Amino acid sequence: MKFKNLLLLVFLLGGLVINAQVRATVSSRTYDLETVKLTVDGFVFTLNADGSISDFNAPDLNGKLEYYDNQVFDKVKYGKLKSIGGIKIDYWDDSAFNTDKAGKLKSIGNIAVDYWEDSAFTREKAGKVRKIGNLTIDYWPNDVIDNSRLGKLKTIGDISIDYGTKDVIDQSKFQKLTKFGPVRLEYSDDRFIDKNRYGLLKSINGNSEKISVSVL
Questions:
Q1: Which of 63, 74, 114, 122 could make an S-S bridge to 70, C-beta 3.0–4.6 Å?
Q2: Mind listing the pLDDT tens digit of every residue in the chain (216 residues)?
Q3: 57, β-bridge pairs
Q4: What is the C-alpha separation between 31 and 138, in angstroms, rounded?
């Protein structure tokens, strides 16, 4: 009995590790964040740097595909994927209260997706993904001193994200990804001895099975 309980515990812990995987990619040209793949309840979502979802998938997502086919009642959903097998997919309707969400992914099965609404305090976030399931996503707000990070991804759950800001002396990492959770990215700042490599990515440290950053 104890051995069975141990196996169950190992299985549950293994599931938690897999569910927590986060994979980020940065551009090899600009070193800015491009996409983040998030695993939520078995589904892998691709979150773009602009706060939109470009795709989703799951290893066991099989079955017949259905589409929204009523041009009158479906409107903004018309022609979009309605279900895969037994998994239903829904999108936000167009209304006076949902203008920033209209037509965007609302749910996949039991996973709800929500977006930031436009207000005087969230102008730079309006229409961007705010939550996927229980995972909260936030973006850099307005900064009167330095707006070089304005609207960029700031947090994904408990993962904090940062970028190089304005520096009159050293511009080697300006607007480039410098931190993604435990992962740190360093850039060459030698203007004299190795000036041909100035601003190029020098190292990535902190990658793990749980959270990683790669350059594409």
A1: 74
A2: 443 343 333 333 333 333 458 999 999 999 999 999 999 999 999 999 999 999 999 988 899 999 999 988 888 999 999 999 999 999 999 887 778 899 999 999 999 999 999 988 899 999 999 999 999 999 999 998 899 999 999 999 999 999 999 988 889 999 999 999 999 999 999 888 888 899 999 999 999 999 999 999
A3: 44
A4: 20
Q: Are 176 and 164 in contact (CB under 8 A)?
A: yes
Residues in the chain: 216
> What are the φ/ψ torsions at residue 103 (nearest 5 degrees)?
85, -5
- Here the tokens at position 90 are 């829904």
**Contact 127/102 with Cβ under 8 angstroms?**
no
Of 22, 46, 32, which is closest to residue 152 (Cα–Cα)?
Answer: 32
23 SS3 class = strand
41 three-state secondary structure: coil
